[in-house]
Amino acid sequence: MKIHVNGIDLFYEKTGNGGQPLILTHGNGENHKIFDKTVDLLSEKFCVYAIDTRGHGNSSKVNTYNYQDIAADCVEFIRLLELEKPVFYGFSDGGIAGIIIASQHPDLLSRLIVSGANVTPHGLKLKWRILFGIMYLFTRSKKIKMMITQPNISNNELQKIKIPALVLAGQKDMIKKTHTENIAAQIPNGKLKIIKGENHSSYVVHSDKLFAVIEDFIS
Q1: CATH number of the domain where residue 124 is located
Q2: Mean of the per-residue pLDDT values for the chain?
Q3: Residue 29 φ/ψ region, left for φ over 0, alpha for ψ in the -120 to 50 degree band, beta for the rest
């Protein structure tokens, strides 16, 4: 399905008819299909909305990429569909958008869950910043440019998040562990979980491992 938000068409799939609304947002260069195995399990208890963010999947193409725009699209999505206090889950770039939403709209969501999110480009481990920088030099990809220049979310902004928040990362994540720890520590109702043996995406993309983590936190 598609819905018009902020001048673009946002594609999403709705799964499950009952239960609390739960929004899923993917990472850079991906689409909602990364959650295929998780959605099947979550839809038994929640009404799941898996979104293709702007410029990804079946959503409208765009000329520029900003985390603020992705967040604004999700806010408008929630309002247009009149979703009452949804849970928001975001992976990587989707997690960054979730942090922005929760800090700028403190009463919109009921809970926030993020995986492998960073609040500044320096939250990425050095080897990944170098790799993405080289990739940008060769490709001039606007999606990669967003990753190496954004976001710039302060501790003060993190402290504005009042809802319960679960901050996840893999033990072998591309995000620095100290960076992830700081995000969780700055959120007043933040909880940290480092998942042993996993990397940035292994427990999220085409995996059912995420289901138990989400269900446990919400319940």
Answers
A1: 3.40.50.1820
A2: 97
A3: left
Dist CA 16 CA 40 (whole Å): 9
- Quote the tokens at residue 205: 């993309």
Give me the mean pLDDT over the 86-90 stretch.
98
Number of structural domains the chain divides into = 1
For 115-164, the pLDDT digits (tens) are: 999 999 999 999 999 999 999 999 999 999 999 999 999 999 999 999 99
Which of 46, 110, 103 shows the shortest CA–CA distance to 78?
110
Q: Could you tell me the residue range of the domain that residue 164 belongs to?
A: 2-218
So what's the pLDDT on residue 218?
92
What pLDDT score was predicted for residue 18?
82
Pairwise CA distance, residues 65 & 70, whole Å: 8
Length of the chain: 219
Residue in the block written with tokens 């492998």:
116
Q: How far apart are CA 184 and CA 188, in angstroms?
A: 8
Query: pTM surpassing 0.85?
Result: yes
Determine the Cα–Cα distance for residues 194 and 45; give it in Å rounded to an integer: 25
Q: Report helix, strand or coil for 65.
A: coil
Distances, alpha carbon 55 to alpha carbons 60, 62, 135, in Å: 6, 5, 19
Q: How far apart are CA 133 and CA 186, in angstroms?
A: 28
- Determine contact, residues 179/125, Cβ cutoff 8 Å: no
